[in-house]
Design brief:
By secondary structure, the chain is mainly α. It is built from 10 helices and 2 strands; from the N terminus they run αααααβαααβαα. The chain has helices at about 5, 10-20, 25-30, 40-50, 55-65, 75-80, 85-95, 100-110, 120-125, 130-145; strands at about 70-75, 115. It is globular and about 45 Å long. The N and C termini lie far apart (about 55 Å). The model has no long low-confidence stretch (mean pLDDT about 90).
Amino acid sequence: MSEEENKTPDFMALYQRYDDLKPGPKAELKRVMNPSDLIEVPAFYRVLHGQKASLRMQRLLYCLPHIKHIDGSDSLGKALAKADINEKRLFMVIRSQEPNDLIQLRRLLKQANPSLDWQAAAKTLYYWNDQAKRQLLEDFFFYQNTKPQASA
């Protein structure tokens, strides 16, 4: 692996470039059906700003349109738990293989409309693997078990 491939991108710069897009290009990114479809969308390359259009970057830009960043906010798992996402739907993400896992995850993000810490979420998506999925699940259940229960 080359040094360039080993270097983590500036996730906040990526978010800022996305945020600076006009509504039309943002809508183009929202409309793609699969992460691989991004390679046919001009806005994808504008946000990448000269970075390689790798699978990792496709994962990031596939999910980014459904995430609002707030510094130091919730993790992805906690945000999904707060949005009362059904755990069965989360397990569909965990058990699926790429790209279906990301397609399922993006549906959950669309439903939850989460405000979370993009820096942390981007890292999870960039290194998306079984360990990242496990961490997502642990964060989800940890929050569910610690949130105050509604009184009857």
